[in-house]
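User: I want to check something. If I give you two sequences, will you return the structure for each one separately, not as a complex?

Assistant: Yes, each is folded on its own. Here is the first sequence with its structure:
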Amino acid sequence: MEYPGSYFTRPWRIILLIFFIGFFLTLTPIILLYSVGYSYDWQNGLLKKTGGLSIDILPADTSVSLDGVKLNEKMPIRLKNITSRKYDLSLSSPNYYSWQKEIEVKDKETIYIKEISLLKQNSPEKISSDLPEILSLSPNGNYLAYAIKKTDTDNDNKNTYLIFILENSTGNNQLIELPTIGNLPQMQWSGDEKYLAIAPDSTTNDNIFIISTADKKLTWQIITSDKSAVTKFAWQDSPGQQIFFSTKKEIFIANPTNARVTSVSKNDFLDWQTENNQIWTIQLSSTTDKYVITKDTFGFATEFATFNVDKEIDKQIILPEILAAHAGQILLQIRPGDVLIVNQNEQYPIKADHWRLAPYNDWWLFWTSYEINTYTSGQPPYLLTRSGEGLRDVWPLDHYNTLGLVWNKRVEALFPYYSVSHNLLDYPVENSTADSFHKILYFSGTLKDERGLWKLPY
């Protein structure tokens, strides 16, 4: 039936219906192919598989180039349906080090470039002409304590150590008045940065000096009632900072606020360590001849794990030492060059001369002079890198766990998740520490014939 005067007659309606059906049948497969990662190469007349690339890094004004072609897009960048192949990716920003890597876009997969913060290019700034032998940075990077050695040529070349505290926000650098320190000291900060504990001898810890950062003066010298030598000390990592310490006979807790020392227990343990308000201990079981780790010994006292290692090497008695307790895991020194990670499910031995716990993501770092191993809870240890350059120290540089590797002749920045690196310093340093919160590397050494303590903002 046709209406009088109608131009949209039946034949035209049929044609339009056929057109839409054909359009649907043509467009639908194309949309489906693109959605599952295919694209059409018009130049070669071929149907190709594609992938994706997602880039979201800092700083936000970073320029991104693929195979030398700059992308005119801002962060975050999302590239869909790009040809599956290898690309040379370059990230750059004014006054920052460039970041370059060959990436491979695979069929139906998206490559993510994220959790990267480019490092600034700066020149080192001299802090002091002194050459520290120890650097100790407070937990949030607000204070830097360091020790320098002075030799008295008029007194049989006797060495003494002077302690300084640098307040980073003001640049105030103050000498701490202490009794004479004749041996290399050990320094340990409280978690709230209010106090610095100094053991005048890092091997014996005969007594402990407590320094308040409020006035940079000697607040307290901890001495036991019987004047016994202190064998170990560790800050309680919780509000109301107190410090645990032990002699051969007893374990004590000391409160710097009121200068009060309280006996906690007899020291019947091979070793102990703090975690928050708990004390972990090691004892040797007389029935099983295995070492027993106890959690919260002076609280609920739960047997955490047992382990068995050689108790004697070359006729020398080897006693395990608790290096750290963190997030329900224990790090043990079982012999020189060998550590053991212990949790309730697994035990992992690692060859390591040094270790550090990154403040981000509960990431453990272990290294010798030639290799770095890492450990994350729930996964076995992982060999990160190996080199013959002579590795001296490893520092987390930012909250993405970029690492500063201190080699014998240079300092390198490594982005471990991407195996990308570049140099921060092209010359050797003697001692170093890194403030990952404010992004400052502190180091001692010689720069352009000038010896001293330096800082490098990055």
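And separately, the second sequence with its own structure:
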Amino acid sequence: MKLEELEGKKRFYKRCAWLFIFFAFFVSALVGRLVYLQLWSKARYANLARAQRIQPTLIDPQRGNIYDRNYELLAKSVDAYSIHVIPSKDRNHREAAELLSAHLNMDADEIEALFLEHEEKQTNFWLARKLSFETANRIRELTIPGIRLITRPQRFYPKGSLAAHVIGIAGIDNQGLEGLEYYYDQFLKGTPGTIQVERDAVQRRIPGGYENLIPPVNGSDLVLTLDSVIQYIAEKELKAAVSATESDAGVIMIMNPKTGEILANAVYPTFDPNDYQSYPALNRRNIAVTDLYEPGSTFKIFTAAAAIDLGIVDAEREFYSGPSWSVGGGSVRSSNIYGHGRINFLEAIEKSDNIAFAQISVEMGSARFYPYLASFGFGKKTGIDFPGEAAGIVPKPGQIAHGETLQWANIGFGQGIAVTPLQLLMATAAVANGGRVMR
């Protein structure tokens, strides 16, 4: 019996020893983990805790203003209010959605769905933009967890549709989308700043808490060559002309031929950049720069200039203008059903006679005429500081395998080629200023 008791005690002590070893190992592991967290992971967990309280916010720079040549304001940025939502476990999504829907043009179910979607993804999002000061104040008073009101700049065009096709538009995120707003976006937009502040559970700033500010760098201002008064008159007259002629669209461009400065660039139909979404996208095209047209009789100026410079014509050179002229396997019709009969060069200009200018073009030939057209700037971009400029279409000598003579007969009076209104303006200015093609 004593032997059995001794064996029992041995087993008991053995079990106690193993239990002690297990607890010793457990305590050692726990102490080791605590030491690791305190010494090696302290900074990491401190940063995680700090990140929950301190939320960085981008500070938008002030986008540069746009002025006309007389410093009349054409575009500026004004403050607008936006609702920025961050995930929050303290927010009752349904209750918050119902409170917000009472002040926003949004359904409570729609708002709740957005809350749930972004809560699951743990992502921030913009709930509403361009809020009025009064609406923003009402939202602020609700003190909903995770709801922040942020003041952001919004583009405003004080003169409405004036020069809208030139100025273009900027988007809600302060980025240029069209026109000069797009072309000079890097120049106008500036560099965002950052502010870090310590906030409580409902995202209110903690007085005396951590704060760090990196200020934004505002964008630069842009001064145009446009004159607002001339632009206004051009737009008014263009609208009347388009209406009177029942045309689909129209362009008026006005330039100082001595300097190359564009004083007006009117396009109709137009749009208001403050509410550009309400207009068809085609209304926003600056067709003076982006679209191509056959210049027609306006092109006869350049045929005449080239012929005079080559010594092919003078004031008394005579032409016969019948109803039509057979050339190059085809025919050219007169601008007058009966033709103009025998006329000299000055009369051909006065009567805008197609046949006389077709004959001049054929006599010059494509090899001699083409370099003049290239010198006037046709068939290539002018280099204007505006996006989407078209180069135009002018066939090179020998480019047309069959019918080149007929093609160049038509080019003599402005058919069979395509130019932009801007190219036509620049080339005409070169005739007016003594032959200098301006930029």
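Because they were folded independently, the notes below concern the second chain alone. The mean pLDDT is 88. The longest helix spans residues 2-39.
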